[in-house]
Amino acid sequence: GERGYEVTLVNARFVKPIDEDLLLKISESHRLIVTMEENVVSGGYGEHVTEFAAVSDLRAEILCVAIPDEFVPHGAPSILREKLGLDPESIVGRIMNKLSVMDRETSVDG
């Protein structure tokens, strides 16, 4: 990709049941799985993936991008996405920060 990372896009389609086999397969070749949704974190797809990762052999780390569990005022969708960190720039920033943390942890552990 543009920043030197290879990515795979998967349309999950359903919150439940999550496709456990697909997640395990993706985790074999990816060190980070990012879930994105315009729903609240609590009870959302990302939370289900995180719960599955905790009890399975999922090798990748999980980053959930979703609406925080807090009051969200009304407004134009584009402005709200930016305020909530769901605009493209914020999402890329969160992913790059997570990868940077993972790289630092690997260099310390490795």
Please describe what this structure looks like.
The chain is an alpha+beta fold and 110 residues long. The chain has one domain: Rossmann fold (3-Layer(aba) Sandwich). 46% of the residues lie in helices and 15% in strands. It contains four helices and two strands. The radius of gyration is 15 Å and the shape is globular. The two termini are 25 Å apart. The relative contact order is 0.15. The mean pLDDT is 90.
**Level of helix content?**
40-55%
Overall structural class, as computed from helix and strand content, comes to alpha+beta
Q: Based on CA inertia axes, which overall geometry fits? A: globular
- N-C termini distance: 25 Å
Count the strands?
2
Strand content: 5-15%
Mean pLDDT: 90
Q: Any guess at the CATH architecture?
A: 3-Layer(aba) Sandwich
Report the major sheet.
2 strands, parallel
CATH level 3 topology: Rossmann fold
Order of helices and strands: HEHEHH
Number of structural domains = 1
Give descriptors for this structure:
15% strand, globular, 110 residues, alpha+beta, two-stranded parallel ribbon, single chain
Task: Please outline what is shown here.
The chain is built from 4 helices and 2 strands. With 110 residues, it is an alpha+beta fold.
Question: Layout of helices and strands, plus pairs?
Answer:
Layout: H1 20-29, E1 32-40, H2 45-55, E2 61-67, H3 77-84, H4 88-109
Parallel strand pairs: 1-2
